Amino acid sequence: ASANIGVVGLAVMGSNLARNLASREGNTVAIFNRSYEKTQGVLDAHPEAGFIPASTYEEFAASLQKPRTAIIMVKAGAGTDAVIQALTEVFEPGDIIVDGGNAYFPDTIRREKAVRETGINFVGAGISGGEEGALLGPSIMPGGSDESWVTLGPILKSIAAVAEGEPCVTHIGHDGAGHFVKMVHNGIEYADMQLIAEAYDLIRRGTGKSPAEIAEIFAEWNKGELESYLIEITAEVLRQVDASTGKPLVDVILDQAGAKGTGAWTVQTALSLGVPVSGIAEATFARSLSSHPEQRAVAVNLPGPDDAFAVTDHDAFIEDVRLALYASKIVAYSQGFDEIRAGAAEYGWNIDLGAVSKIWRGGCIIRAQFLNRIADAYAENADLPVLMTAPYFADAIAGSQASWRRVVVAAATAGIPAPAFSSSLSYYDGIRADRLPAALVQGQRDFFGAHTYKRIDKEGTFHTLWSGDRTEIEAEDTH
Ligand code: NBP
């Protein structure tokens, strides 16, 4: 036994993660893949890594020092279950199995419970940053027991991205907490991407600027408070010219956005937790809407507004869009952190929200300067019920809201879809409302279903005898 860490699954993510591990001082890495050709391929391509190959699970287990620690990077779902089953047969109590794939957190909760019964530790760890992150330093969100963190923590710290001197990894919480937080990370990523896409569309259709010109606008925005990896790559994509047609690449890419399901998981989970992640939901639905060509083909002739979209002051409009993007982004993060807060309460995880924002500053897709402000907000008040009410964000929105409203009005008037911009604004106006028409909804529910209501002026639960003499009676709470 000479390896201190092993990797199972040597497709793009696993092989890059194994190389990252091998490149760090003190690590010797055992590798295993179901089909041996991949193992041989990785060995041949990277002799410098000093990998210890195994062709069976038994050999793999024998090559690992105790407590054995192995990171699984295989296709999420049945593949992960198969590898866990095989490892539990060759590992011993005290060993650690880490699932670094994109598992759905209820699966991680289930697997942790089952593996724990064998005395082996199971850690579901969300890993973000794609193939480059896996190789050079991802953001890592591990769940699992405190005991496994003792062994695993130093290893994960050695391979994680570093942001302002701090490794982008922290023990998120027990069992499925890491995969839960990774899921919400991806949901926020959906919202961030959709908001940027809406900003691009509004500027293009409002000013007639070319993608290359808009790339320069994004590059400029990337120097300010919107500085982020996604803004940076947006400029790169918009600058790209298609080799075969000479057109901007963005104009020859089919406008149907794909999805691998993590956005949908975020929204489904939010619905069951009762958390309004409307920006993330609209971003997810915008991808769905784009991906129904048969519906778009029949709807394309539906009427839009009569007047063409004409922006007179281009610079002022672009600045309005920048501020609308900033305010909407604050809402998206506020909603995402609300979901983590609610998930932690539901599943009994003790999640440090400030620490989560810090480990997203490097390695992952939503990395951004902005996350420092979120960390500050939670440092000031760890129990902040609504992130965007922190003074820094409240001030930022106060300075953006006039622009934000103008952009949403302009989009609606011009017939340009801006679902994430407008739903974020509605959320903002909803949550800050002194009184909501939910009172009327309660009245309707009481009318047709005797669902009862509470009153603002006295304790108790009430029902109006709608089909009788319409007097009010005290009632059982049937909420
Ligand atoms: P894939 O998701 O394409 O999975 C391929 C690997 O799974 C191969 O090593 C394959 O072995 C193995 N595998 C399968 Br499929 N079924 C198996 C089974 N029953 N037993 C053992 N091994 C099995 O690889 P990937 O794209 O490198 O992604 C790995 C994980 O990382 C996934 O969960 C994915 O969702 C996640 N991921 C994350 C990011 C990110 O940014 N964080 C990006 C991409 C992927 P074989 O070679 O024998 O077929």
TrEMBL record:
Enzyme class of the recorded protein, top EC level: oxidoreductase
Reactions that this protein is recorded to catalyse: 6-phospho-D-gluconate + NADP(+) = D-ribulose 5-phosphate + CO2 + NADPH
Protein keywords: Gluconate utilization, NADP, Oxidoreductase, Pentose shunt
Transmembrane segments: none
UniProt xrefs under SUPFAM superfamilies: 6-phosphogluconate dehydrogenase C-terminal domain-like, NAD(P)-binding Rossmann-fold domains
Record pathway: Carbohydrate degradation; pentose phosphate pathway; D-ribulose 5-phosphate from D-glucose 6-phosphate (oxidative stage): step 3/3
Keyword Oxidoreductase: yes
Subunit relationships: Homodimer.
The name this protein goes by in its record: 6-phosphogluconate dehydrogenase, decarboxylating
Organism per entry: Microbacterium murale
Protein's gene: gnd
